[in-house]
Amino acid sequence: MFGMLAPCPSRTPDELKPRWMGHFCGLCLELRDDAGHFARLTTNYDALALSVLVEAQQGDDADSRNAGPCALRGMRRQRVATGEGPRLAATASLLLASAKIRDHVEDGDGLAARPGARGIAGLTADRLRAKATAIGGSIGLDTAPLFAAIEGQRGVEADAGLGTPLTAVTAPTEAATAALFAHAAHLGGRPENTEAFRTAGAAFGRLAHLLDAADDFEEDAERGAWNPLAATGSGIEDARSLAREALADMKRALQSARIVDATLTELLLDRYARHAFSKTFGSSCSTHRPPTAERRGYRERRDYRKDRRYERRSRYDHGYYRPEPRNFFAGLCAFTVLCCTCQMCCREEYEGPWSRRRREGCCRDCDCCDCCPCDGDCCGCGCD
């Protein structure tokens, strides 16, 4: 379960929670049926926006069905989305997962850096790509341009240097997401929405890319890894400004589209997107700033070394350090246990299956720290 549009219970009206879960479960079941159980690991929060956009154009005519009990939702039944919307979301999830694994293979980092894992990772990326192509073909989506755009990202990054505009680096991501959003207009039976959705998709891709770059800024600097903000000399504040513009562009584009029911669309692509922005950069409200005076514009990371619940004492220097990450198979076993016991959804905190870092359950209660206190509803606030 990945992506920037993670659910925020305190910002989600009770009547919309079952609908959001219906799309989430619909995507998961679509991945299972069309690509196998393993593919369910690629479930992506951001891809849900595609399923929601298709449904938003169809209203009550959108396809759905009753699903049986599932451990991931506390053995409760659920009305889930079906049809072309979840298939488009499944295509996007598999496409993103394939591209991410391929990046690790080519860079020789992550799990792909472990002995014997590189070949398996490469085969996995190829398999996910083939499944994405097959599912995309079933809904009339040509995935070749999408993969070409994603594969072109490496060349763009290689050519980027000091002074290169950030928009040049985010362009491949924007092109891929724009194509996916545009196809949602076709599947929803509203071809007149194509250009509006294409514009919203490009803005969404830019926002996701910038948030990811800002989130990884410190970690990439420590590891000596490539980061677009450092490579182009743009910095956090430039990324913040562009991300804020992307939020506004996406909102205007969606408002110009003809949508039957925009309730869930506004939740994901407005409220959740602004929440993701706030977690990374601080509030999207022009008049609100986090109380910390020395905040540097990105989310401050907790020093896990100070949390004794997730540390072990070193017998060499008597200091504290984070537990060693698990290998692929041990992490897979831990992931299975966490999923089957619903800890990844319902537990307030749990230990990451591979990294062993402290994580927070996706359905936990939260106080939405660093969000604009008015959430854009107050007069004269200037929120985007």
UniProtKB/TrEMBL annotation:
InterPro entries in the record: DUF5685
Xref: Pfam families: DUF5685
Highest taxon in the source lineage: Bacteria
Protein's name in the database: Regulatory protein
Species assigned in the record: Glycomyces niveus
